[in-house]
Amino acid sequence: MKINRFLISVLVLLILSLLFSCTKDEKLITEPETMEIYDLSYSNSILTWKSSESTRSIVQYSTDSDFLNHTAYSIQGETTNHSIIFLDLNSDTTYYYRIKQKTADTIIYSSIKKFNSGAVSTPAQILKVVYIDVKQGDSELIKTPEGNVVLIDGGYGSYGAESWTGFGQKITLNYLKSESITSINYLILTHPHADHVGGLADVLSDSSITKVDYVYDNMLSSTSEAYIDFLNAITPRSETNYALPELGSFISLDSDQVKMKLIHNKNQMDEDDTGHYYNDCSLTYHLEFKNFKAMFQGDAETVAQDVILSNYPNDIRSQFYKVGHHGSYNGTSRAWMEKMRPVACYIPCGAGNPYGHPHNQTLTILEDFNVDIYRADQNGTVILLTDGENNFTIIREK
Ligand SMILES: [Zn+2]
Known about the structure:
The chain is of the alpha+beta class. 23% of the residues lie in helices and 30% in strands. The strands form three sheets. Strands 1-2-3-22-21-8-9-10-11-12-13 form an eleven-stranded mixed β-sheet, with no helix packed on it. It has a seven-stranded mixed β-sheet with strand order 14-15-16-17-18-19-20. The protein has a four-stranded antiparallel β-sheet with strand order 4-5-6-7, with no helix packed on it. Strand 9 and strand 10 form a beta hairpin. The chain starts with a helix and ends with a strand. Bound molecules: zinc ion (ZN).
């Protein structure tokens, strides 16, 4: 009797421990964190959804009409197996959806899993460009597949008129912090106007940025407070090389996989030939990552664009265009668009800015060339992701 009781106890303990271990394993597999997804639809190459955590929109550009088969870097899956994986690179999280309902032009997905991106195979090498919403001003962050960082201009930052939004905020620095960026390979100031240099002193003097390898500047003399603060913030950084880049020189990153060619600087302009000398001197960079190309021209206006076109008549093709001079009438010429032929663009214009940017003339030109328009005042910060092939993904803040 005693032995039987003992055997039963052992058996019970054995069964309990087995049950416990199964439950533990099962919990790991079948009860991942879930997120409620609704209003997720795909129509005319636009994928949008709302979730319990956020509202996001993705626009996918592809030379191929089969959208879902050509999204390896950000969205994987296909309509046939009714599954889709979205890698949210911003928060390093992977979302996995399964198709719930499908109509002619709409696919509704339901979320079934959410897990860290380490749980799925590594996505393709991705270049990320962030058009930071600094209100009326410029700031673009480029992060290469290998993690190198280029920052072009520093947003509105702490200087400027107080009458419209953006004043006094360390927008660019805060964005770098949100991306946990501590090191900048190249910091580029296109020209010394406050809406481009204003936040760079904040970036350069913050202890979170431990290293800045190069600062490229047009070396235009300026006595503005914002520019002086910028120069003073460079001085204590003994590790930083401060230089005016030469026309035709390259910034080469990731073993030459990512290249940025300088196609314009102040040496191409005569001081007397334009009323907008500082804008027209803007350091202008043409980014290249495999087949993907993008244009960064600061505030270079049509006079400067003509100079660039004469120097590089066939080299400015770009899928994405950071619109010149905040969408001003003098920031984008038809000749410029003719050679660049972008698919989409970003206009860095602040809501209620006193210049009336973007001007209707520019919007008309962009529309005539069928360019999809993203705007700081309407879409906030815009993130571009590309694997360097003929497609790219846009994530809008709003
Ligand atoms: Zn500007």
